[in-house]
C-alpha cells in the first residue's frame, strides 16, 4: 500500500488561507483525527466533492477554524482519496496543522509527489505533469497561457496523433512481414513514404518552434552589452522600471553582472547588465569583462548598446561581430545628442534596431516591438502544441531522426522488417516523451524539480 502523504499546498508565507493537502488510502481517516465538523459529522461519511466547516486540533487543543474538502478516488488530483484542510494562512497555524496531520499517521510528501502520483495513476501524462511546474513558475501571460494549454493536453494530443499514424504503419509492416502469403492489403511504398515523411515533418515543425516557444514559456535570457558609458545601466533601469544598476559617467562602474527579470508586454526578459567592454588593466574589471563576453556567447538575446553621440570604436566593431548570427536587437542610444556614430553601419549589421534616448524616455514600446518580432511572439499561438523543455525536444529530435532514417531506408529498398525497427524506435521515443514508456529515473528526475506540496 502506498503511504498516505501530506504537505502544505500553499506557499511558505503568511496569506489569507493555508491549505494542507493529504492524499492516499487513509487521507480521510487521518483528516477525521485532526478535523471536527461543526455539525458533529465525520468526513468519512462524506461523498466526494463535498466540504464541511469545523475546526482543527492538535494534542487536544483547538488550533483554528477550518474547512475540509473531500475528494474520493479516482476523482481527485492524484487519483487517490484526497482531503484538503483550509485554515487561516499564518505560517505557525499551517505548520501546526501539518504536524497534527503527521501525528495522525500521514508521511511528509516529497517534492512533486502529488503530481507524480497523478501521473502514475494515469490522471495526466508526463508533458502535462511538466506543464504544472511551468504554470506555477510562469511570470508572464504568454507563459501562463502556453503552460495552461499544455496542461489541457495540446502537446499530448499532437504527439498521440503522430503515434497513432506511426503505430498504424508499424502494424501494417509487421503484418506484411509476418504473413507474406496472406492477402493483407499492404501500404504501397510511396504511400508509406509519404505518411512517414508527414509524421517526421510534424515533429520537425515542433522542434523548429522550440527556441521561440521556450523563450515565451521560460523567459528570454537577455544580455545588455556595450562599451563603457554607452548607457547599458540606464537601459537596464528603464526596462526594470527602477534603479537596479548604478549609473555614472565613470567608466568601469558596472564590474560584475547585475541581473533582473522584467516583464515586457507578455514576455519576460531575464536581464543581465554587464561590465563595459574595453581593455582594462584593473584585474577585477577584466574578470567582469570576460564574464560579459561569456554571457554574450550564451544568451538567447543580446541587446548591444551603442552611444550614437560617439564614433564607433574597436569594441563596438568587436561587439557587432560577436552578435552576427545571434538573436540581437541593436539599441542606438543617446538620440537626444548630435549623432557622431555611423548609424547606417549599425543598421546594416542588425535586422532589428531601436533608436532611443534611454535617459529621457519611459517608453519601451519600440524595444518590445522588435523583441516580439524577433521571437515571433506576436504570432505565437499559446494554444498550439509547443515543446517546453530539453527533454521533450530531445525525444522529438530522436523520433524525427528515426523516421527520416526509415524513409531513406524505404527509398533504398531496405526490407520492411528493418524499416520497421526504425519506426518502432521512433514510437519508443514518443512514448517516453508522453511518459507511457518512460524509465523511472527520468520520471524521478522530473518530479524532483517540483516544489513540495505540488
Ligand atoms: P554604461 O556604462 O553603459 O552602463 O552607461 P550608463 O548607463 O552608466 O550611462 C553613462 C552616462 O551616460 C550617464 O551619465 C548617463 O546618464 C548617460 N546617458 C545614458 N543614456 C543617455 C541618453 O540617452 N542620453 C544622454 N544624453 N545621456 C545618457
Summary tags:
single chain; flat; 6-stranded mixed β-sheet; 46% helix; 17% strand; binds guanosine-5'-diphosphate; 454 residues; alpha/beta
Characterization of the model:
With 454 residues, this protein is of the alpha/beta class. It is built from 16 helices and 13 strands. Strands 3-4-5-6-2-1-7 form a 7-stranded mixed sheet, covered by helices on one side. Strands 9-10-8-11-12-13 form a 6-stranded mixed sheet, sandwiched between helices. Helix 7 (189-208) packs antiparallel against helix 14 (390-412). The longest helix has 25 residues, at 154-178. 43% of the residues are buried. The site of guanosine-5'-diphosphate has 21 residues, from helix 9. Guanosine-5'-diphosphate (GDP) binds at residues 226, 228-234, 247-249, 253-254, 276, 333-334, 336-337, 357-359.
Any idea what the radius of gyration is?
Answer: 28 Å
Distance between the termini: 21 Å
| Binned strand content | 15-25%
Bound molecules: guanosine-5'-diphosphate
Q: How many β-strands, per DSSP?
A: 13
Low-confidence stretches: none
Helical percentage: 40-55%
Reported for the largest beta sheet, the result is: 7 strands, mixed
Give the overall pLDDT as a whole number: 90
Oligomer: single chain
Instruction: Give, in order, the helices and strands.
Output: EEHEEEEHEHHHHHHEHEEHEHEHEHHHH
Strand order in the largest sheet:
3-4-5-6-2-1-7
